[in-house]
Every structure is written in structure tokens, then in C-alpha cells.
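Hi everyone, sorry if this is the wrong subforum. Our group has a chain we'd like a structural model of before ordering constructs, and none of us has done structure prediction before. Sequence below.
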Amino acid sequence: MSLSSESYSRQSFVEFALQERVLRFGEFMTKSGRLSPYFFNAGLFNHGASVARLGEFYAQALIDAGIEFDMLFGPAYKGIPLATTAAIALSARRGASQPSVPFAFNRKEVKAHGEGGVLVGAPLQGNVVIIDDVITAGTSVNESVDIISQSGAKPVAVLIALDRMERAGPDDALSAHSAVQEVSQMHGIPVVAIANLEDILALIATHQTFSQYEAAVKAYRARYGI
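Answer:
Right subforum, don't worry. Here is the predicted structure as C-alpha cells:
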């Protein structure tokens, strides 16, 4: 069943991520070497029902953002199933009277046989929305923008699951803006998130089960956040 705009909420997504253990609290070493009190791993949306529901959240967030688009693009590797499930959810909402939503993705390695190349799926054309899980350094988005632009299409937005609202760089030289803000400014396109760190803090504040992590999450945000 599709989510309605009334039942969709950022808070319900955070609760969904907790149920699937995609969002966890504790002590986690991030890729950047920081010790984070929470961790979000979209790869743990790893069964049919959870991925289907995830697609509904992506679809609703994109619809709510009011962005005009023609197709979706998922950067390898995590972006591939994300773009797929979002395209399925969006197509279901359009119904049989409207065109289905096309999507494409890239390979990490160039294929030398068969159709060859690095692109798989529908031809890149028109306004393209990039679908990913989070933005840490912006590398996959930068590569996606290049691929889309070189194909003659136009990247118009990035849609992610969670905005950590976190600055990049070493502790003594943190960026002025968050990774999400820098990507948006660099490419001149909006970055839409299903939920963000403020939504996680709101959940902690209203669920006694997670109250023990509130101080650590707030301290982490004070040090690295915006």
C-alpha cells in the first residue's frame, strides 16, 4: 500500500529505520575516522518488504519537494536498489494512464563485452534526480553529475535518505558548511532528504528508550554539525 501525504512523516521514517536496525545508537567509527554515537546503514534495508516501504518514502519525499523530473539515477552500488525501488513506487502512483518512471545506474567497471560501457538501464535524458543513501564527502554525487551531464541530460536534484547535517574535513579544519550544503552549492541543485539529524534528536526526546544517547548525539552535533 502506498503511503499517503497525510501518513508520511520524517518521524515515521526514523522509526522505520530503527525497526530495521538501519539506525542504531552506541559507538561507531565512521569512514572519516570519527567516533559517532549513531550509525545509519541503508544497506540493512535488505529484504523485500523493507525495500518496498523504503521506496514509498523516497517517492513521497520527491513528490513533496515538487521537483519536476523525467527519470532517476542510482550511483553504484548502494544507489542501484534505491533508484529501482523509488522508480517502482513513483510509477505505481502514476497509474496506467501515465508513463512509467525510467531509471538508470552506472557500473564501477567498464564492461568490454555485450553492450559495453558503464551505464545500465534507460537512456539518460531530460531532468534526472540522483538517488543515494547519505552524503559524506559528495564523491558519488560528483561522479553522477558528470555522468549525467556528459550524456546530455540535466541533473536537477539529489534525493537521499538521511542528512547527517555534518561538516567534512579534519577536526582542525572543518568545512564551513555541511557535506549536503556543499554538494548543493557546488552543483546548483537542491538536496532533498527524507529525514535529518534533527528528526533523530526529536525521536530521542520523545522515546525514553533512547534518552541515554541524547547527550552524546547533541555533543557530537555541537562538534561536527551545522
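For your construct planning: The chain has seven helices and eight strands. The chain has one domain: 10-224.
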